[in-house]
Design brief:
The protein is of the alpha+beta class. It is 36% helix and 11% strand. The chain has 23 helices and 15 strands. Pfam families: Transpos_assoc, Transposase_21.
Length: 637
């Protein structure tokens, strides 16, 4: 349908005549006395009873883009051209599928209701690709039906079933209301409303209404001893673990009764993990124009003055761009950070139960958004009560497979809503950031014993304290400059001189050569095979980490990092146990911690800062007993 006049000069005669024609059509197709405002400002998400208000808005901001079929003003959406449907933005798609906005008359909708309207539009836009299948189309039809259904017969304020349910759920999330309390509230309100109302009665019913088109989740059965996942052709149909022989399902008394060879009740798996694929999640991010632009912030808007304020200012980011030029030239390609930790899902401060989560953030985003909940993925949840420990690689397998797919040269086909084009998205895992125990679990390097330092490795200076029954780490003089005065003060260090140079940095290729031939059978059962100990001491490596399967992993300078919060906290705990007139040294150490925690760091100061902290550690050797120097103190150099 030719309606080019809608986007002509607003002072032209054809536009003026066209607006008058549009208003006559809209008046003839009023819904309960209201007209949706199709302007750039309102985007069919506000309604007014007076056409003169819409007349004013049209001459003020014009029609919303691609609104050639007036679906919110009496025309049928099926008449739209196919290319128009493909190029719709979020609000356009919302009105195409029947989103009519709110029913508030001439008054503007308030902030909370506006959030609901925006969420509905985004929900329907996100569902666009999911609705291509017959099953997805049926779910979308149900959602549209709920959106058109009045909350109760004769509702004069225009409240709809879907809109109201979404408002209730937003209120629940905002105020941290428990599921039980929320269910009780729904029952109370449902009893107050007139007979025949459509308000859901339980939390479960509410989620069914608003989440029929949610992101995909894979529920994967696991061996209770963490040996394998029951997936793929090799393990999918097994009834017991081939490594430890543990049964896949829990045994119950009523499982013994069968009818025609079938179990009478659904069997319960012994252990489960949930995997939320990251590729569909990325697709949804790129369907939003604002998110789309933010994904290129590091290349288009980042301040580049030589200071360190974003991972893109660091050497690792730049080395990746130089090493993999095809990857670096497209700013939309993603760099992920990964973290993992355990939690007690019952809200208890105890280690009696540990459910493990794996989260990922996107480093392409600006610092103010990178750690916002909206942009953090949680691809893996591992059921407790025991932590996976060294066997976490078993559960990381689905995620690593997706990361391999995203690294391939052809990448994954995505739609860029901002540039209105398809492109091949690629991504890599930039770094993992964890506390010290989780770093050891992911990297495969031992976090205790004589070679616990991830940097020094074989050159770690360590001594076992017999009476404290712990290993301590000293010998910080070797990290100082060769002409530093402390080298001449051997009498202060048990009359020992130390002419060694600092340990050399091990590249990714060097580390990979150390671990590539390690063979480990994962699991905690009788069939597992851990790395054997060396001379009665813990081996430096516990496994060949699954991350080495990523083609780029050996080219990263920093693969695993410790978060600053845990580093400073653990040192503080150490200091409190040994305080004895060391104010100047501790003050200097605090200044170092403050400097590296700033939002902007001058790279030219980094060497001086490292020298400062080394001098602090050397002074600590003169002040504190050897038991002070545990592995967390050692990492501060």
């Amino acid at each position: 349908m030719d309606r080019q006049w809608m986007y002509a000069d607003q002072r032209s005669k054809e536009f003026i005549d066209g607006v008058h024609y549009f208003l006559r059509v809209a008046e003839a197709n009023k819904q309960k006395g209201f007209i949706c405002c199709p302007t750039n400002k309102c985007k069919n998400q506000k309604e007014y009873s007076a056409s003169r208000t819409i007349h004013f808005h049209l001459f003020e901001s014009g029609f919303m883009p691609s609104y050639n079929c007036w679906t919110s003003h009496g025309e049928q959406g099926v008449e739209m051209e196919e290319d128009e449907v493909e190029d719709n933005n979020i609000p356009d798609f919302a009105q195409y599928v029947g989103f009519d906005g709110n029913q508030t008359g001439e008054e503007d909708i308030d902030a909370d209701y506006n959030d609901v309207a925006n969420d509905l539009g985004q929900m329907l836009q996100d569902a666009k690709e999911d609705c291509e299948s017959e099953k997805g189309a049926h779910k979308l039809d149900k959602m549209l039906e709920d959106h058109r259904t009045s909350l109760y017969p004769g509702c004069e304020k225009g409240h709809k079933k879907l809109d109201t349910t979404l408002e209730f759920l937003q209120w629940k999330a905002k105020n941290g209301v428990s599921d039980k309390a929320f269910g009780d509230l729904l029952k109370l309100v449902k009893n107050i409303l007139p007979e025949g109302n459509k308000l859901p009665e339980t939390m479960y019913e509410a989620k069914k209404i608003v989440c029929p088109l949610g992101l995909e989740v894979q529920k994967i059965h696991a061996c209770p001893n963490d040996c394998i996942l029951y997936r793929g052709e090799e393990y999918e149909n097994l009834e017991a673990c081939p490594v430890c022989k543990a049964l896949r399902y829990k045994i119950r008394r009523d499982d013994l009764g069968e009818v025609d060879g079938q179990l009478t009740k659904k069997r319960i798996p012994a252990k489960v993990m949930w995997y939320f694929p990251i590729i569909p999640w990325l697709r949804r991010l790129f369907r939003n124009k604002v998110n789309d632009r933010m994904m290129r912030w590091h290349a288009e808007e980042r301040q580049q003055d030589g200071m360190l304020r974003h991972p893109a200012d660091g050497s690792q980011w730049q080395n990746i761009d130089r090493k993999f030029k095809d990857f670096g030239k497209d700013a939309r390609n993603k760099r992920f950070g990964l973290s993992t930790d355990g939690m007690n899902r019952f809200g208890e401060m105890s280690s009696g139960h540990s459910t493990w989560l794996v989260t990922m953030c996107i480093y392409n985003l600006p610092p103010r958004l990178c750690m916002k909940r909206k942009y953090i993925m949680m691809p893996i949840i591992i059921q407790g009560p025991k932590q996976p420990g060294n066997d976490i690689d078993v559960f990381l397998r689905p995620l690593v497979e997706d990361l391999k797919l995203l690294w391939k040269k052809e990448g994954v086909l995505m739609w860029d809503e901002d540039k209105q084009e398809e492109f091949n998205l690629r991504a890599l895992l930039f770094v993992t950031i964890n506390d010290w125990p989780a770093l050891s679990i992911l990297s495969g390097q031992s976090n205790k014993g004589y070679k616990a330092c991830t940097h020094c490795m074989d050159e770690t200076e360590s001594t076992y304290l017999k009476h404290c029954r712990k290993v301590m780490y000293m010998g910080y003089r070797r990290f100082l400059a060769a002409n530093h005065p402390v080298w001449k003060k051997g009498k202060h260090f048990e009359h020992k001189t130390d002419h060694r140079t600092k340990p050399k940095h091990h590249s990714g290729k060097t580390v990979f050569a150390m671990v590539k031939d390690l063979k480990v059978v994962f699991g905690k059962g009788p069939g597992s095979q851990p790395i054997e100990c060396e001379d009665g001491h813990a081996a430096m490596w516990k496994k060949n980490s699954i991350f080495w399967e990523l083609p780029y992993w050996e080219f990263l300078d920093v693969r695993h990092a410790i978060d600053v919060m845990h580093l400073t906290k653990n040192l503080c705990v150490n200091l409190l146990g040994f305080l004895d007139n060391v104010r100047a040294t501790i003050t200097k150490l605090c200044s170092f911690m403050n400097a590296i925690s700033q939002k902007v760091i001058d790279p030219d100061r980094l060497e001086a800062l490292q020298n400062d902290v080394l001098q602090c550690l050397v002074r600590f050797e003169l002040i504190f007993p050897p038991s002070f120097f545990n592995i967390m103190t050692h990492f501060h150099w």
